[in-house]
């Protein structure tokens, strides 16, 4: 019987995950079917019970459920616990084990693109769920410093405190970045979805600095345009991270890590909005 997997969230019809995972399955000769299932806010528990009953072996979780999923898992990984969010579920007899592959996806994409992290001054914009998943993996790469900046002042403070045992995170607001210089700036805000750029001061990107945008698609590109205007030597969007976090989930489920370049290249021409 064909093994079944799904991505759940709302909205879900535009998710690229089915395309990515079905391509991984074909490339690695795995007999599986991966589908997108619409799950509205407030119905996650019922949906997970239903998927378990229907025999699904694994589930990816996206907006708006990532932060609600941990409490519905019988066990969660240390990285998911630190992130306070689950994006991958692995079936167990009793229910679901939760994991979070977003941070691993980011680091693998930065490595694929040969971005330097070690000894670099790194600035992360935003402090939502994605940032919580990125902090520990970024600190493990030994940056010279890691600063997290957000438009709302209290969330970076909270993150710095939460990750104190893992490493040093300098909390800032966008306005107080004036005068600082960073070698790598990672945009992990959702501002691009509204077509806007987080209001950070000009001049914070060091000469020769690089920029990475978690969002992708031409309609969500204000940060990449800003990076270009600031003279960034490297600019990348988050499509590679999307594919890499999917590959990490696929490896957890199937015990085989798929090659990512081919799938990434196939997504590029149609990436659109
Ligand atoms: P959250 O909703 O948890 O956090 C959103 C963050 O964006 C908050 O820090 C929020 O600030 C900030 N923000 C929103 N609008 C603005 C604005 N106009 N100006 C400045 N800051 C703003 O989202 P996630 O952390 O889950 O996701 C963040 C982004 O990363 C999304 O675009 C998502 O699509 C993308 N992502 C990409 C992945 C990939 O694989 N490429 C994986 C995961 C996420 P405040 O606290 O002040 O509201």
TrEMBL record:
NADP(+) binds at residues 78, 126-130, 214, 238. One of its GO terms (cellular component) is cytosol. Its EC number is 1.1.1.25. The active site is at 66 (proton acceptor). The keyword NADP applies. GO terms for molecular function: NADP binding; shikimate 3-dehydrogenase (NADP+) activity. Keywords: Amino-acid biosynthesis, Aromatic amino acid biosynthesis, NADP, Oxidoreductase. It comes from the Bacteria. It is an enzyme of class 1 (oxidoreductase). Residues 7-89 form the Shikimate dehydrogenase substrate binding N-terminal domain. Residues 238-268 form the SDH C-terminal domain. InterPro entries: Aminoacid_DH-like_N_sf, NAD(P)-bd_dom_sf, SDH_C, Shikimate_DH, Shikimate_DH-bd_N, Shikimate_DH_fam, Shikm_DH/Glu-tRNA_Rdtase. It catalyses: shikimate + NADP(+) = 3-dehydroshikimate + NADPH + H(+). One of its GO terms (biological process) is amino acid biosynthetic process. Residues 116-193 form the Quinate/shikimate 5-dehydrogenase/glutamyl-tRNA reductase domain. It holds the Pfam family Shikimate_DH. Homodimer. Belongs to the shikimate dehydrogenase family. This is Shikimate dehydrogenase (NADP(+)). It comes from Solimonas terrae.
